[in-house]
Amino acid sequence: MPIIVTLDVMLARRKMRSRELAERVGITEANLSLLKSGKVRGVRFDTLSRICEALQCQPGDLLTWVPGPESGEPGGDDDAT
Fold first, then answer.
1. Domain count of the chain?
2. Which positions ≥6 away from 66 have C-beta within 8 Å?
3. 12 occurs within a structural domain
4. Is the Cα torsion angle 29, 31, 35, 39 positive or negative in sign?
5. Which domain holds residue 41?
6. What does the pLDDT profile of the chain (81 residues) look like in tens digits?
7. Could you tell me if 54 and 76 are in contact, meaning their C-beta atoms sit under 8 angstroms apart?
8. Alpha-carbon distance 56 to 7, whole Å?
9. Does residue 34 form part of some domain?
10. Which intervals hold domain HTH cro/C1-type (predicted)?
11. Does residue 25 fall inside a structural domain?
């Protein structure tokens, strides 16, 4: 997947544990773990907003786009007919 979740990096920078963030945001630790690992297909803007508020960061601090085969670039799987 071309979107990389860097939530663990921001947690380390803020010296905050996943448990504390989950409590502040109002989601389960299990869901936060799935988000951190990039195993989710999406995140609600409301949840992303609460995470950014708790960590005092921007969405771009948590998500990075990396070109790859799924990004729609020539030669990727999206070009199959």
1. 1
2. 2, 3, 4
3. yes
4. positive
5. 3-67
6. 689 999 999 999 999 999 999 999 999 999 999 999 989 999 999 999 999 999 999 999 999 999 977 655 554 444 444
7. no
8. 12
9. yes
10. 13-62
11. yes
